[in-house]
Amino acid sequence: MAPSRYVGILALVAGCLLPSGVRALWPIPHTLETGTTALTVSPFFYFDVQVEGAPLDLYEAVSQAQFYLANDKLGRLVVGRGANDTTALVGANTLSTLTLSLMSGATAEPIASEAVKPLGTRSEEYTLTIPADGSAATLVANSTLGLYRGLTTFNQLFYYYGGVTYTLLAPIAITDTPAYPFRGFALDTARNYYPVSDILRTLDAMSWVKINTFHWHITDSQSFPLEVAQYPELAINGAYSPQEVYTPSDVQYIVQYAGARGIDVLLEVDTPGHTSIIAATYPDYVACFDETPWSTYANEPPAGQLRFALPEVVNFTASLLADIASTVPSSYFSTGGDELNVPCYTNDYPTQLQLNSTNTTLNDALNTFTLATHGALIAEGKTPVVWEEMVLDWNITLSNETIVMVWISSEDALAVAERGFRLVQAPSNYFYLDCGAGAWLGDDPTGNSWCDPFKTWSESYTFDPLANLTEAQYELVLGGEQCLWSEQSGPENLDPIVWPRAASSAEIFWSAQQPTGAPLNVTEALPRLQDLRFRMVQRGLKPIPLQPYWCAIRPDACDLTA
Amino acid sequence: MAPSRYVGILALVAGCLLPSGVRALWPIPHTLETGTTALTVSPFFYFDVQVEGAPLDLYEAVSQAQFYLANDKLGRLVVGRGANDTTALVGANTLSTLTLSLMSGATAEPIASEAVKPLGTRSEEYTLTIPADGSAATLVANSTLGLYRGLTTFNQLFYYYGGVTYTLLAPIAITDTPAYPFRGFALDTARNYYPVSDILRTLDAMSWVKINTFHWHITDSQSFPLEVAQYPELAINGAYSPQEVYTPSDVQYIVQYAGARGIDVLLEVDTPGHTSIIAATYPDYVACFDETPWSTYANEPPAGQLRFALPEVVNFTASLLADIASTVPSSYFSTGGDELNVPCYTNDYPTQLQLNSTNTTLNDALNTFTLATHGALIAEGKTPVVWEEMVLDWNITLSNETIVMVWISSEDALAVAERGFRLVQAPSNYFYLDCGAGAWLGDDPTGNSWCDPFKTWSESYTFDPLANLTEAQYELVLGGEQCLWSEQSGPENLDPIVWPRAASSAEIFWSAQQPTGAPLNVTEALPRLQDLRFRMVQRGLKPIPLQPYWCAIRPDACDLTA
């Protein structure tokens, strides 16, 4: 695969000398060939959907692509923003059509259906060809999902100046396919609540960089904003307010909105830790509830964890998780499992009574609990997802299919792989977007963020998904995700703290071909990421500026060694 | 002064037990007495302006206060957000009027005129009394500016629940006066541009915490967005785009808007460093323009500094600064003077030719340049303001009136004071809001922010304005400011990166009575700052969340040692 990838890199290197239209692509396609011919987009440009039985969400995607094509109006990030391109555009050929079609034998399912298929069975690849002579461009894929990815790429190919939408790099030929099947973004909506509109806007941005999983950490110890039909009191007593909830119809709308953008919604209901607020409804189910000092019983306030040794808690949790999981189409569901605090149970009378009377250990009880909760999910057709502690810190039986998320450190992937589990890379030392904002606990003026320092896009971008692993273990790496934990975040800072940084992992897991293609390079990437960022601004997002604008329009001039 | 300040602290300590309405005050007033009586605000409440010849901007301020009183609708930050207060409100007395008046002998000038008087001659003090029996509240001051400050306090006294605006702490008696005359916020609008609307919104927020100086770092090496009537090419060639400029009428509007909110606009046109972009118009006036490696010639790209040794550059700069200064009413103008790079001139032929032919040193030339530029400003009636290097790194003659801003380190205040200059505290190790966001230069994936770590509100809040100084030097400390440098900021993240953090210095310099009153305390302050933050949200600002909402409504529960 390496040689074909080099085609793309070489074209881009040339693009640093030429006026590069393709500088805007993010993630960089698997193969990319470009020419040097100017091509303008016709004011009468249209997308020609030659797909038999095309589903509604494909037409919606085309309509969205048409909107972006007309409204992005992104000037090239050079001094003058494209003013110098106008002479090249005089007499240029005009592109009037992009024809979308499926490969023969492929059937047209809704994008939303393709997006929730099991990992490894989704078809995201596509071929996009734009001739230089003005004849129709073509987009071909094996699925509507592949067509959706291709439309995303198509929208990134064009700049705008003085009323003209154009590329200077026709002909363009792209064949594209992701390096990894799982490319996620995780959002914690429990420490602080995000209105549905913020989530939808985030899903849009995710789709622009081909992220295909919204890992929704929807509940935690602080709040339970998820309305569950069978357990309505959990949100009534556990949401921050009656307005700060996700109703079943909110969830359905978000899932549908995500699916239409090629995104699977992976719900996480973190158990048995991170559940303090459940005590507001079921006080008997929660140990060490709001005990102080909280730091003895939890990593952050408030303390409180499910009494997983009690049979009624096992039944309740299995039922709760299955009920929630049954409402969403994803093949996956996360039961969490991080930061389980043992001292919480040491003096917990109901837990100790149960353990003593049944002559079992805390570990055995956790095993029973996990078998039951995971069993209930598997019965619903879901594959369980857990945080790394469930395999590294505890001795419990998990289905071989279980997916393990590595978060504490990138060093831990090896240990997970050695146990034979498939894994998702979400290491805090590369991918936690909340790091570096200082201490948030009160009375701690000299405290720093526990995962200091702030992870810049480029630090994240240097992450190697296969580091430390043996070649035989490579296939266990499903992909990765960047995460926003919300102790110090909310709708007020969502866009700038996430974007464009979350695009770093999106490119790593789309473009970094395993086992080892050409390594990604921060210097080559920065101008493209700037382009992505400015296109995001054009689309109404509020991504953080990466540099002074002076630097943004002078690629490489602000490199450390320039 | 300490005893009267203790009244306030004690009332607040009691307030942690009682339902505290006054928890919301920020900055905390000089003296504060509260009762335990509920008092509701009448739907027909009005502000009774008993001020002879009241200026228009006082009426505008009253109108704004009326708007906030009706629309803040801030629930108390406790579980239930005030639901438990409703019984106390049954049959409560109703407040119908706040009477505003000036002390006898005081004359009613516009707030905007009072706001630009020389430091030390402005009258910001006021007395606010709210009886418990429903009779008229009174606000008395020596000036319209004092009345404005009092209105700001009045608006922070009330909560809202279920259609009722109320306090539970009547009667309330406040006498208030600032500890320091200069309380600023500095914004760099040159690295990245901010639309006028962003500046206006920021001025509003500044006024809510009684910040009285907008230090506007309006130009820098990267861009020159300021349109100067006598030198139009500077912005034509130096602004990022024709849209990204501050026209003379923009500046007038901003100055007027600020003035009406009790805020003086201190313009900074940084010289002779930080001027690279002037070369786009006057290439002969700039040394080492865009030289590489930039790191030899500047602290950040692009390199380029005024050839201050050349007589024509001295004349140009003096004329430019005087022309700009003459358009604004402030008594102060900053000529910058930070980070002057010597190697820039070492091989600069015009500079060396001039120095050799006149047998002068670079230091002498800087002295001549500064005498001329400051002289021109003094002739315009302005007091010059400079960064600390102008007195610590160079041997130049400055007017005794010159104000020196300490920025490199809080340790440097002593050296400035030892030279006898009045100073403003803007130390990067406490007050730089941009710290902690990682490296922004390209090709530097492992680089951190130069002033790591991120300055939390509480770290900033522990700053002692008088640290290391002798008692005789205390009077030299005019106040201080937090600063946003915009390498990694722009309109997209302005609100969350500035607020509520910039309120920390606002309280230090309003409430920390010198020489040494009761020290400010982060644990006491946090619930009040949370209240301020949530009130800011109610007013449409986007301040960063400081903690999970669970913590915000449970004061002290998320303290480090809780």
TrEMBL record, chains A, B:
<comment type="similarity">
    <text>Belongs to the glycosyl hydrolase 20 family.</text>
</comment>
<dbReference type="Pfam" id="PF14845">
    <property type="entry name" value="Glycohydro_20b2"/>
</dbReference>
<dbReference type="InterPro" id="IPR029018">
    <property type="entry name" value="Hex-like_dom2"/>
</dbReference>
<dbReference type="GO" id="GO:0005975">
    <property type="term" value="P:carbohydrate metabolic process"/>
</dbReference>
<keyword id="KW-0378">Hydrolase</keyword>
<dbReference type="GO" id="GO:0004563">
    <property type="term" value="F:beta-N-acetylhexosaminidase activity"/>
</dbReference>
<keyword id="KW-0732">Signal</keyword>
<dbReference type="Pfam" id="PF00728">
    <property type="entry name" value="Glyco_hydro_20"/>
</dbReference>
<feature type="domain" description="Glycoside hydrolase family 20 catalytic">
    <location>
        <begin position="180"/>
        <end position="512"/>
    </location>
</feature>
<keyword id="KW-0326">Glycosidase</keyword>
<feature type="domain" description="Beta-hexosaminidase eukaryotic type N-terminal">
    <location>
        <begin position="25"/>
        <end position="157"/>
    </location>
</feature>
<dbReference type="InterPro" id="IPR015883">
    <property type="entry name" value="Glyco_hydro_20_cat"/>
</dbReference>
<dbReference type="InterPro" id="IPR029019">
    <property type="entry name" value="HEX_eukaryotic_N"/>
</dbReference>
<feature type="signal peptide">
    <location>
        <begin position="1"/>
        <end position="24"/>
    </location>
</feature>
<dbReference type="InterPro" id="IPR017853">
    <property type="entry name" value="GH"/>
</dbReference>
<dbReference type="GO" id="GO:0016020">
    <property type="term" value="C:membrane"/>
</dbReference>
<keyword id="KW-0325">Glycoprotein</keyword>
<protein>
    <recommendedName>
        <fullName>Beta-hexosaminidase</fullName>
        <ecNumber>3.2.1.52</ecNumber>
    </recommendedName>
</protein>
<dbReference type="InterPro" id="IPR025705">
    <property type="entry name" value="Beta_hexosaminidase_sua/sub"/>
</dbReference>
<feature type="active site" description="Proton donor">
    <location>
        <position position="339"/>
    </location>
</feature>
<dbReference type="GO" id="GO:0030203">
    <property type="term" value="P:glycosaminoglycan metabolic process"/>
</dbReference>
